[in-house]
Design goal:
Structural class: mainly alpha
Subcellular location: Cell membrane
Radius of gyration: 21 Å
Family: Belongs to the UPF0324 family.
Strand content: under 5%
Protein name: Sulfate exporter family transporter
Number of strands: 0
Order of helices and strands: HHHHHHHHHHHHHHHHHHHHHHH
Distance between the termini: 48 Å
Number of helices: 23
Number of domains: 1
InterPro entries: UPF0324_pro
Membrane topology: Multi-pass membrane protein
Largest sheet: none
Amino acid sequence: MNQTKWLEKEDSWANIIGLFLVLSISAFWAFDGFSIVKVLNVKFSTWSGTDILSAFKNLSFLNVAILFCFFGVWLSIVSKFLGKKFKPFIFGFILLFILSILVFLISAHTSAKEYQLESPLVALIIGLILGNFAVLPQWLKDSLLTEFYVKIGIVLMGATLPLTLLVSAGGVAILQACIITIVTFWTIYFAATKLFKLEPSFGATLGAGGSICGVSAAIVIGNAAKAKQEHISLTISIVVLWAVVMVILLPIFCKMLNLDAGVAGAWIGTSEFADSAGLAAAQSIGDERAIAAFTLIKIIGRDMFVGIWAVLVAFLSVTVWHKQENTQVNIGTIWERFPKFILGFLIASVLVSLFTLNLEAIANEHFSKEVLGMIKTLRNWVFTWTFLCIGINTQFRQILLVGYKPLLAFTIGVAVNLPLGFILSSYIFHDFWTEFMK
């Protein structure tokens, strides 16, 4: 029963798929069979003008078909355990896959590269156009697992960040994340409950969505606080709105201020509200250091708070906000609410670090170029599906109907979070982030 319940969770399957890819690709490389799995390394070449066929010069249509079948089989298995209807789910994935090919082709064009239109931003734009100007069936939207795709991508990202880096940089990242999480949470909560007289449980849900891990935190903390479902839905809409705004503005601000890639990634990590949107913003910087800095602060630093805040908020809900209800607060909620895909991220980092520990310098260089290069490519595919899902599921008309009080409360948190994140990244921890990964 417990095993079945474990397999009914997105985090479990994200870890299974992500770690399977890391282990299998590494094993094939170690036993001289890398050419077998290399068929999954689908990456389009740069092209210009109207010569679109040149984008396929280093791969065949068979490679694309194999990649589709590989993920299609995995996702078909996952749909069964997650209780999804097979046909709508697989049709939704087919649409995502076709759109992702379009995204990569557009972002591989020389004009797109000139204007730094990276694949995440292109995917988000296409998704937003479809979500707001096309009439899409509800079954399609229900089949898009945004959080699931980003979790797979984060597990794969763990393989590209060695354990030594996590140990050396984790302390600073967690400290910065602690500061930003605590300040932002209580700012939004105070604004919501004291300035706009919203219910405490609603204020806690808004605060969690703006300070921890966006949509996931809004759901987890909202339920822990016993917030009304409509309040959780409103919070999600506000989080998505600001996440989309920040995915566009933060990279622009970083480039205008000529920030170092490490500093830029750290600022994005403290000031974005959703993992997927933040990854899109970090990738737009065009430097792996920005992605790594973002990951340490947002994924390792801020997301880990979801379990801690769930217990705190559940305690407040029972003892203060809903005191009349006879409910026990169980400390086991920490483990229950803890995002398990972070464990997959850490395991992937440990496995790759141990694997490369005894490799000679030349072999290590080949491993990084071939194995880690392929993992990054697969990670980009998964993240592209994530950004397409975000765009398709974001409808501005619904967000505008949220109401001004919760939106203003959240916006006050943004007004504090944004400059605080900049000060922490560019001044207080500036020396650390400028030397990060150099």
